[in-house]
Amino acid sequence: MNNYQWYPGHMAKALKTMREDIKPVDVLIELCDARAPESTRNPNITDLSRGKIHILVLNKKDMADETGTSRWLAYYREQGVTAVAVDAKSKEDIKRVNSFIEKKISDKFSGADSRLAEAVKKAGGNLKKRTVRIMVTGIPNVGKSTFINSFAGKAGAKTGNRRGVTRGRQWIRLRSGRDLLDTPGVLYVKPLSQEAGMRIAFIGSLNDNNLNTEELALDLIKWMLLHYPGRIADRYGVDEGDVSDALKVMEDIGEKRGALKKGGITDYERTAMLILDDFRNLRLGPVTLEMPEDTEGFINEKA
Question: Would the pLDDT of 92 be above 90?
Answer without folding.
Answer: yes
